[in-house]
Amino acid sequence: MSDIRIATAEDQILLDKEAKYCSYGDTVHYIEPPRIFSRCEGSYVWDTEDQAYLDLQMWYSAVNFGYANPRLNNALKQQIDTLPQIASQYLHKGKIELSEMIAVDAKKKFGLDGRVHFNVGGSQSIEDSLKVVRNASNGKSLMFAFEGGYHGRTLGASSITSSFRYRRRYGHFGERANFIPFPYHFRGPKGMTKEEYGSHCVQQFARLFETEYNGVWDPKTNQCEYAAFYVEPIQGTGGYVIPPMNFYRELKQVLDQHGILMVSDEIQMGFYRTGKLWSIEHFDVQPDVIVFGKALTNGLNPLGGIWAREELINPKVFPPGSTHSTFASNPLGTAVGLEMFKMTSEVDYGAMVMAKGKYFLEGLQDLQKRFPIIGDVDGLGLALRCEICGPDGFTPDKATLDYMVEEGMKGDMIVDGQKLGLILDVGGYYKNVITLAPSLEISYPEIDLGLKLLEQLLVRATTR
Questions:
Q1: N or C end of the chain: which has fewer CB within 10 A?
Q2: Which of 310, 345, 380 is the last residue of a domain?
Q3: Contact of 44 with 52, CB cutoff 8 Å
Q4: How many domains does the chain have?
Q5: How far apart are alpha carbons 125 and 304 in whole angstroms?
Q6: What SS3 state is found at 144?
């Protein structure tokens, strides 16, 4: 095990400048000193000393198709040489064709006509969805959302994110949320199967509508105080918690009975992370709104957006000017998005991701058998979780995971004669979960390498 890493003289100069000139409000220093990176390719990034790190979080699932993906990079370069810029009040081919691809796909899968609206990223697209929802519900500003849910840090998005720390200093801005327990089976009541616990959570939610005295429903007018339920089908920052397959189908029945819209936040799990274009597809329900971002452009452009049912977003109910961004539907972003859709249509991406995810999960399950501090592993496609606990295999152990993250960033592990670092992401209600979001292009040998590196970190953690 190496000593604490010391920044090079050149890096230290940059870190001193960062300390003086950069806002710390838009970043997090998980390790000290922070790494400064210089290049990337595939599943790897290299620091200024040209030390390679295998990345198993890929910019919080924004770079689903690998760093510096040649095909997507070339689409961006070609667009720069033709129509790199145009005001969003004007039309260009990319916007129209990308909207068509998303809307036609939704029609095929959900049987619903709808339209696509773009913005410059995930949080901003959540804001747009809130406008659509409030407009459709005659101005209702109360929403349901999940405990452990994360929807962004703009004012509206943080209001429906369950972490109070994101809004503590800013208060609420219009929206407020009633946070409902998510079926987190590993930490749920004992004695229930995963499916039974999912049904139990739905039944507890349905109690809110039993009488007017349960708080949200007026049986005399058949009106609910809440406009929509914002869901991450697979919780992201909450720790890649995967609900039982019956859960959303039963939840949607309750929502439809009471006129409550379902908004599926696919910002982190969209674009084949779970083996489907949208993670909600696994659960046999029809969402009313889908919010997307991140991997639409493989992280090359901050383009996001929403798809919504025709009744919610047609020009009569949501006319021009309802919301706007200077850079919305910009041609650079839509060009990459179009190429991403073409690329993923040429091979069975879903089958490929599910096969790799199954292989990776089996490796994690093997580690779990050999290391009692792994309390839970789970996965859907290449959205995988590994929960680090105390010796009892249940008590959350944030300190040990923090240690593992720091050790991985030292870049001093040796596998088959190669010196490597490992980039992990931390999530979960107790910040004790490794949330694994590798490149969807990751090779099987790279999965094996990632498992070997994880094993070395677990050995260090349990023998320190």
A1: C
A2: 345
A3: yes
A4: 2
A5: 6
A6: strand
Q: What is the structure's pLDDT at 269?
A: 98
Helices (H), 207-257: 247-257
Asked, for residue 449, whether it belongs to a domain, the answer is yes
The pLDDT of residue 4:
63
- Exposure string over 102-136, b if 16+ CB within 10 A, otherwise e: bbeebeeebebebbbbbbbbbbbbbbbbbebbbbb
Q: How far is C-alpha 6 from the geometric centre of its chain's CA atoms?
A: 33
Burial string for 417-452 (b: 16+ CB within 10 Å, else e) reads eeebbbbbbbbbbbebbbbbbbbbbbeeebbebbbb
For the record, the structure tokens of 449 come out as: 């390498």
Q: Do 44 and 106 share a structural domain?
A: no
230 and 266 Cβ atoms separated by less than 8 Å: no
Kindly state the helix (H) or strand (E) to which residue 119 belongs, with its residue range.
strand 114-119
What is the Cα–Cα distance from 366 to 406, expressed in whole angstroms? Answer: 23
Q: What amino acid is encoded at 227 in this protein? A: A
The predicted-structure confidence for 7-49, as pLDDT tens digits, reads as follows: 899 999 999 999 999 998 887 777 888 899 999 999 999 999 9
Looking at 329, 345, 361, the residue that finishes a domain is 345
Spatial neighbors of 445 by CB under 8 A, at least 6 apart, are none
Q: Quick one: pLDDT band at residue 314, thresholds 50, 70, 90?
A: very high
Give the integer Cα–Cα distance in Å for 133 and 230. Answer: 10
Please give the structure tokens belonging to residue 291: 């919010």
Q: CB within 8 A of 29, min separation 6: which ones?
A: none
What value does the CA radius of gyration of the chain take, rounded to a whole number of Å?
22
**What backbone phi and psi angles, to 5 degrees, belong to 353?**
-65, -40
Structure tokens at 358: 């199954």
Tell me whether residue 4 is in a domain. no
Strand 176-180 and strand 142-146: pairing? parallel
Give the burial string for 367-406 (b: 16+ CB within 10 Å, else e). Answer: ebeebebbbbbbbbbbbbbbbbbeeeeeebbeebbbbbbe
Residue among 224, 273, 221, 309 at smallest CA distance from 442:
273
The pLDDT, as a whole number, for residue 214 is 87
